[in-house]
Design a protein that fits this description.
2 domains, single chain, 46% helix, 12 strands, globular, Spore Coat Polysaccharide Biosynthesis Protein SpsA, Chain A, Serine Threonine Protein Phosphatase 5, Tetratricopeptide repeat, alpha/beta, 17 helices, eight-stranded mixed sheet
């Protein structure tokens, strides 16, 4: 039985290949574009696209003014509002996968795909895609120089991001931020590499670095091959994770960043991907101030402004009225403290507070178990995941991490059992996990290796 299971898992690449020969239903939601500016005003850039929701004229006014000051010609692209997509549409785009992301992430992907399809049809060679929350940090005329330098050293380049990484404020200082979900492999991804591979950078020249993964699509320049690779990939897979995470699974994608930021994210901006902005409902339903606070905190968190996110989560945790939402604020407060590098005693107490507030939720049990396991305090970790594994996902709230209930807490239990020498329990739980199609292959390979050692 064990040998059969291992063999089935090891040779499952072909039937589980996530890049399909036919287009997926995602293509049904790509929108046609009407361009007005066919010259960018910047050498070597055919067209500049700026993504902006119709509900955010404030953001468009700000970014348009910034481009005008640079004497650049841009095309405003009316973003696909993911919050207006029905649950049936989201399920159709996810196919065999569960819906794991906010509706805004679907809109973000579809907005980018609409641009990529337009650029491909028009035959553009090099385009610049910006979101409406960018910030100009240095001379933009460095960009054409970098593109020529890039083409000389790697004629097959695909993407040049215009910043090193997204920026956030932490402890009063601006730093570059790697999102905690930067490595989020699909359950059927074909090629697994260690996390360190995706986070490493290598010098191409003094001014350019080759990367394998990062977060953020605030500002990126794509070559013709980059346009084609991204368009083909995302129209031949089902939706799994946000575009800035899944794009790095595109085979043979040549990605680069400058050694210094040129155009990056506007730190004070709030994200539209994690909260709905529906102006049509303003006159009929005004959300409670505390609810706005939670959504604002999630928006700040998504955009990397963790200090402001922390303030909003705390504000809602003491003033909110919805039990599920107060729990989510407490849980996100703990996660944000951990991401900010606060002392362990601080964020551990925050996780415990969330746990006691709503002990029917598995998310804090998972986070505590994972922390103690990584600290090699396996007995403590085991106690938390042993309780959390018995909990079921809520069905009455959007604030949930379903993957924790699906495989996350089970994985913690398997790993803790292994390290504590509870091998029979480890094997039993591993069997459950390996039969789950949603288990990412990174973890599948880890379990197989451990099972092989115990076989």
């Amino acid at each position: 039985m064990l040998f059969s299971l291992l063999t089935q898992s090891l040779f499952s690449d072909a039937p589980l290949s996530h890049i399909l020969p036919q287009e997926t239903p995602i293509v049904n939601y790509i929108k046609p574009l009407d361009l007005r500016e066919f010259e960018s005003g910047l050498d070597d850039i055919d067209c500049i696209y700026v993504i902006n929701l119709d509900q955010r004229p404030d953001k468009w006014a700000r970014v348009k003014r910034a481009f005008d000051e640079k004497k650049l010609k841009v095309n405003r692209i009316s973003a696909v509002n993911g919050w207006q997509l029905s649950e049936e549409m989201l399920k159709e785009m996810c196919g065999p996968y569960p819906i794991r992301c906010q509706a805004g992430h679907f809109g973000c992907l579809l907005s980018h795909l609409s641009i990529l399809k337009d650029a491909c049809q028009r035959g553009f060679k090099t385009i610049w895609i910006c979101e409406d929350d960018i910030d100009f940090l240095s001379d933009i005329h460095q960009i054409p120089e970098l593109l020529r330098e890039l083409s000389d050293n790697d004629p097959e380049w695909d993407i040049l991001f215009t910043d090193v990484l997204p920026r956030i404020y932490r402890n009063g200082k601006m730093i570059h931020y790697v999102h905690h979900q930067v490595c989020d492999p699909r359950p059927d991804v074909q090629q697994i590499k260690p996390r360190e591979y995706y986070l490493q950078k290598s010098d191409l020249t003094d001014n350019l670095l080759r990367i394998h993964k990062r977060s953020g699509t605030t500002s990126m320049i794509l070559s013709r091959s980059g346009i084609q690779k991204m368009l083909y990939y995302f129209t031949h897979v089902y939706f799994w994770s946000p575009i800035d995470q899944d794009m790095h699974s595109i085979p043979n994608l040549h990605e680069y960043v400058p050694s210094k930021d040129i155009v990056s994210n506007w730190i004070e901006a709030d994200s539209d991907t994690v909260r709905s902005i529906d102006k049509s409902k303003e006159n009929t339903a005004t959300p409670a101030p505390e609810s706005v606070s939670l959504k604002r905190g999630l928006s700040y968190q998504e955009s990397g402004n963790l200090t402001h996110a922390l303030e909003e989560f705390h504000r809602y945790s003491v003033s909110g009225t919805s039990e599920a939402e107060v729990f989510w604020a407490l849980y996100q407060l703990a996660k944000t403290q951990q991401d900010l590098g606060d002392p362990a005693t601080l964020f551990l107490k925050a996780y415990i507070k969330a746990l006691y507030y709503l002990p029917t939720r598995a998310e804090p049990f998972y986070s505590l178990s994972r922390y103690f396991r990584l600290e090699r305090e396996f007995s403590k970790a085991y106690q938390f995941c042993k309780i959390g594994v018995k909990l079921t996902p809520p069905h009455d709230t959007q604030y949930c991490e379903p993957w924790i209930y699906d495989y996350g807490i089970l994985l913690e239990l398997a790993l803790c059992a292994y390290h504590l020498g509870k091998y029979e329990e480890f094997k039993e739980v591993s069997h459950q996990l390996l039969h789950k199609s949603t288990l990412p292959r990174e973890f599948r390979a880890q379990l197989i290796a451990l099972l092989t050692n115990e076989a």
